[in-house]
Amino acid sequence: MTSWLRTYDSACLCLLLCCLVVAFSGESFSAGDSVCRSPGITSCTDCLSRGPQCAWCFEEGFLDGAGLSQRCDLPVNLLRRGCALEFMEQSEVKVEVNATISSTQVSPRDISITLRPGSAASFIVSVKQLERYPVDLYYLVDVSASMQENLDQLKTVGVALSLRMTEHSSDLWLGFGSFVDKPVSPYINVHPSKIHNPCSDFEIRCRPAHGFHHVLSMTSNMSEFTRVIKRQRISGNMDTPEGGLDAMLQAAVCQRAVGWRPEAKRLLLLMTDQPSHLALDSRLAGIVVPHDGLCHLEDNVYKGSTRMDHPSLGQLSDKLLENHIYSIFAVEKQQYQWYEELIHLLPGSYLGKLGLFQAPNLIDLVVDAYKRLLSEVVVSVSVEDKAVSRYWVSVTPLCPDGSTAAEHSCTGVQPDQTVYFNITIGQHSCPDDGKDEDVTVMVRPVGYNESTVVRIRSKCQCTCGPAGQCRDANASPCKQTQNGNNQEERPNYGMMKDSDSNKNCKADGSDVVCSGRGVCECGKCVCEQSRLGAVYGKYCELDDFSCPYEGGLLCGSRGVCVLGECVCEDGWTGDSCNCPVSTATCQSSNGLLCSGRGKCVCGKCVCDDPQHSGDFCERCPACQSTCQSYWTCVGCHLSHGLTQEEAGQCNHTCALLVGYMDDMSGQAGETWIHCMYISNDSCRNSYRFQTSSKSGQAQLLISTRPDCVSSSLRLVRTFLSVCALTVLCGLVVVAVSRLLLQKRRWSPGGTVEDAGYHCTGKVLRSEVELHSSANLKD
């Protein structure tokens, strides 16, 4: 058996026993056409192997004359093309739960599944943690010479451990066994004096080396356990590794000799200070026979030690799972790293590091390991070796807090909590012979004495109805049914002319065989294959590619072509399946269809009035600029005093709903058009009114208050405004000019005028000085 291992914790949920069926494939259903339809498909088996979404039509007259590949398609497409459901061979995925088998921990216990290649099925297995279990603990101790002091520490363990375990278990039983190594060279010294006493050089009496010796079966008598431990003697071997894994397998599979109880939690404690031999190590001793995984105890001694190799880790893992055994490794710290890598390959294992093999340390190790192992729920799913390559398994846990474990492990499971596992099993392919097969899959919660058996029925062949005729490549084109028996009709070409043989392949009034698109075989048209689509019919006169195209796709890819016409999918209509049946695309923002001004045709609005436009007929530029078209109606209502009693007098003038309002501001919005009615005779006859077609019918609201504004008053206001603006601009210009002048006068260089003044003064002073100097000379 090959195992997929998943680890999970339980959750406090209601018991869930319903199963989920999930059928899927690597391709989506939107791409189902390309998956199912291929010219290379010539049989029902080929069709169904394309994926669980494909179906084969075995109706005799389906697409008469078309290629065999046209019989393979999605069921919905075959149905549209005229194939009835009772003539379809489809992938059948079923999950059946046998609820008659009672259980207290694992449920359900028996499940039957029907699968086809490419399909998968899901089901849920629940595992409940009980509050107190009886416990069987088997001590498997390395009795090589280096373990002498450790062996002495076991003498006081029995009674003390029994007292400690009463807190966690309702009943504790203990057993004992010992191991050293395979009693062959080069693992032991084969000198005659060393075989019976490996410690003769040290003048110590030792017991002979042995692969495994079962000493004490499970017992609740702690005094007997202590007495047996005190009688144990050490042994010896030559190399460092020991035969611990070989002994573990024998302790697991020899259930009757060891005395494992069916209802108990089973713990196997391996005590050693050295690593263990692995598979293929026995070749050094010339032992090449693989271990068979069976019990070989004779007189409580393992007799197959010198004949079979050490078991592989996978084989040991399967046997521990199969026999519901937890394994605990008590090793010295020097070997901790070696066994740390080992336990990752053994489900339900616990590793304890002990500085010294003292009784208190061993007791703490066993108690901690028991609590740790029970708080972690592990599930192993195993498929038979013969079919392991044809199936895949996926497991998803549901932890106690309702979350799924990220690392496939949930810890902290408490008594009376339930773990749920969503397990999916899928099939890749069929056996090489193509026949149906039965496969057994085991779902084993590690350490539990209950498991779930999953029986898979793989359907690789087609039944094609009661008659068993699939109309595929396995049937001869000339095979017909006569007198209830299938006989092959072979035409006698020596006695039949060519014109006679082709007579049945010509349409009435035509001299062309099979409409020029096929060949006549056995008096029946076999239509040619076309890259454009299927050619079919009694005379190959029909095809599925002569329908209208939409967007470059036949029938807009929303239907199939049958007899030259598109048969649309649900929700589509039209010659090329381009029109949605739904009118949702014509709904305007106000909830009306085309704003109440048109009809929805092929998913688009067609406006009733050419003046309206837009995607929802919401725009009407001409309507918004023709307020005067309503003046006649407004004038009629004004002449009757804007009263409801007289409103009926204007029905012949107004073809719309009319209402009166004092305040027109409350009707502001995009759907309302604001207008003014102005009378030439008096400003008191000027009124505001609004129009709208929001509800699909034209409406008119007239203000009951006149809105009169004198035109002369508007002219005065305009003149005064212009004058005020002119004066304001002049004042601004004057102010700016004054500011510029002031700035220049007080600048360091002075203004242009000041500069000229100072220049003139200097000239006068120069002239006076020159005149004075001239007088002095005279």
- Low-confidence sequence ranges: 2-32, 479-498, 750-778
Structural class: alpha+beta
Radius of gyration based on Cα positions: 50 Å
User: Which percent bin holds the helix content?
Assistant: 10-25%
Shape: elongated
Mean pLDDT: 79
What is the topology, as strand order, of the major beta sheet?
A: 1-17-20-21-7-5
According to CATH, the homologous superfamily of the domain at 135-375 is von Willebrand factor, type A domain
Query: Largest beta sheet, briefly?
Result: 6 strands, mixed
Distance between the termini: 149 Å
Total count of strands:
39
- CATH level 3 topology of the domain at 135-375: Rossmann fold
CATH class of the domain at 135-375: Alpha Beta
Specify the CATH architecture of the domain at 135-375: 3-Layer(aba) Sandwich
Helix count equals 17
Amount of beta strand: 25-35%
Disulfide bonds: 36-462, 44-54, 47-83, 57-72, 199-206, 254-295, 399-410, 430-675, 460-464, 520-525, 522-555, 527-540, 561-566, 568-577, 579-586, 600-605, 602-650, 607-617, 620-623, 627-636, 633-708, 654-683
Subcellular location: Cell membrane
Family: Belongs to the integrin beta chain family.
Membrane topology: Single-pass type I membrane protein
What's the short story on this structure?
The chain is an alpha+beta fold and 778 residues long. It has 17 helices and 39 strands.
Task: Kindly describe this structure.
- The chain has 778 residues and is an alpha+beta fold.
- Among the domains are: 44-90, ligand-binding face of the semaphorins, domain 2, CATH 3.30.1680; 94-130 and 379-458, Immunoglobulin-like; 135-375, von Willebrand factor, type A domain (Rossmann fold, 3-Layer(aba) Sandwich), CATH 3.40.50; 514-543, Ribbon (Laminin); 628-662 and 672-706, no CATH class.
- It has 17 helices and 39 strands.
- The strands form 13 sheets. It has a six-stranded mixed β-sheet with strand order 1-17-20-21-7-5, covered by helices on one side. The chain has a six-stranded mixed β-sheet with strand order 11-10-9-12-15-16, sandwiched between helices. Strands 6-8-19-18 form a four-stranded antiparallel β-sheet, with no helix packed on it.
- The protein is elongated.
- The model is unreliable at 2-32, 479-498 and 750-778 (pLDDT under 50).
- It is found in: Cell membrane.
- Disulfide bonds join 36-462, 44-54, 47-83, 57-72, 199-206, 254-295, 399-410, 430-675, 460-464, 520-525, 522-555, 527-540, 561-566, 568-577, 579-586, 600-605, 602-650, 607-617, 620-623, 627-636, 633-708, 654-683.
- Residues 1-25 form the signal peptide.
- Residues 627-713 form the Integrin beta subunit tail domain.
- Residues 35-84 form the PSI domain.
